[in-house]
Amino acid sequence: MHQHRVRTHRSDENLAREGQLAWKLAEVATDPVEVDADVTEMIVNRVIDNAAVAAASLVRGPIVSARGQALSHPVSIGGEGATVFGVDSARRTSPEWAAWANGVAVRELDYHDTFLAAEYSHPGDNIPPILAVAQHLASVRGLTGRDVVRGIATGYEVQIDLVKGISLHKHKIDHVAHLGPSAAAGIGTLLGLDTETIFQAIGQGLHTTTATRQSRKGEISTWKAHAPAFAGKMAVEAVDRAMRGQTSPVPIYEGEDGVIAWLLDGPDGSYEVPVPDAGEAKRAILDSYTKEHSAEYQAQAWIDLARRLHEAYPLILDDPDRIESIVLHTSHHTHYVIGSGANDPQKYDPSASRETLDHSIPYIFTVALQDGSWHHVDSYTPERANRPDTVALWNKVTTREDEEWTRRYHSLDISEKAFGGRVVITLADGGEIVDEIAVADAHPLGARPFARADYVQKFRTLAGPVLEPAEIERFLSVAERLPDLAPHELGGLTFVAAPGVLTSVETPKGLF
Question: Can you give the three-state secondary structure of 236-267, one letter per residue?
Fold first, then answer.
């Protein structure tokens, strides 16, 4: 692994392609290095993880809408089309629309994997566009499960490397600007494209997916689930254009009117982006971590801590009148993005949207403290949010930035990287309860790290209400054989909803 320095260049400097970040990333995508066994194992886990959270979202509004849009488009003539979660695998649509529908389903509950460093990310968002293209072209190009694994390994590597080196949120740019390039690179690896073609696709993928972070601020809307799916859809289309010989703005990162100069640190800005050396295995996925709970990742450890406190002090914490205040000492991000430092009144509003509540650590900590558990549906219902004792305690919870927790949050030393903090509960009688947690229980360094059995159980739990038992077992048997799947088997990497599930909700009408 080496550090590639990225800075703005004047046009008259004529920065060579080989010196551009997009080219370096394209070289990563074309490196034929094999995927390590433990990386392959984790890729299978994340395919299962994505399917689990997608199943739990099948009848939620954003997914119903996105699925309706996707199924309004016919299969394109260049391949067999791609599957859409919940729908019979024989009913295909074009790959960019499948990436759209499945991407929304994966992201809606904010319940799949995460990586946090200079920027934030859900690298599992790479899987829907890569898999959609694989299904579409499986027979045409003879693509196998091994090719899918290679493509996903690249998608994770590129996104996580960008996240380690370049902060977008500092300039209020949404984190999916790292996803467009990574998904394009992953598709390039999947298809065995050349460096020049992938380079052009990465540039277009970045250029078309830069947007502001207002989608994650204030009154958070349903677009939060659509944003990464849009980036995946744009990546598919960017690869298609690049394969047809169409080019991208160059240099996309370093140009004097490029991304760094005008959207990020400006003409004097520079970054160090880690890039694997030629022949070095792509192992970045192993630095990422999934979620046990359906909430913003920075809330995962706090839910576990609240659960622990609930068990230790049930008589005290059940009564808001016994508590004077609760202060969560935590990282800059947790304080300013999902904490009281955001200064968003919506984070204390019982009538706020689910998307807003899952970005409110005061709400999440309160409910987990009172219930001793967390549920992807029940913990967000209007009835739960409006409970008087919850509202009373909720308004006593604030966050405060702690420099040490901020340092650990940004550390690239995985052994000390932390996403929790220290809680100080001041009681009405003057006493205190103080405790802390560094990482979530499900984190690789946590109390109960997620392993294959946990991913399988997560799928069984979330899919149980909407899939037939036989379909659950069929999907798991296919997913666990991912590295060995033949071209005709890739279409099995989806699932069909039980009879009546999809028809239980009305599909809204639009243009298509």
Answer: HHHHHHHHCCCCCCCCCCCCCCCHHHHHCCCC
* In a domain? residue 153: yes
Q: What is the dihedral of CA 309, 315, 320, 326, to 10 degrees?
A: -30
Please give the pLDDT value at position 354.
87
Residue 347 placed within a domain: yes
Residue 288 clears pLDDT 90, i.e. is over it: yes
Identify the pLDDT of residue 412.
79
Q: How confident is the model at residue 441 (pLDDT cuts 50, 70, 90)?
A: very high
Could you give the CA distance from residue 130 to residue 499 in angstroms, rounded to a whole number?
28
Q: What is the pLDDT of residue 292?
A: 94
| 272 and 369 housed in the same domain | no
221 and 304 share a domain?
no
State the pLDDT at residue 352. 94
Pick the last residue of a domain from 437, 461, 491. 437
State the residue for tokens 């960019």: 96
Pairing of strands 397-401, 323-330: parallel
CATH number at residue 409: 3.30.1330.120
**215 vs 17, higher pLDDT:** 17
pTM of the prediction?
0.91
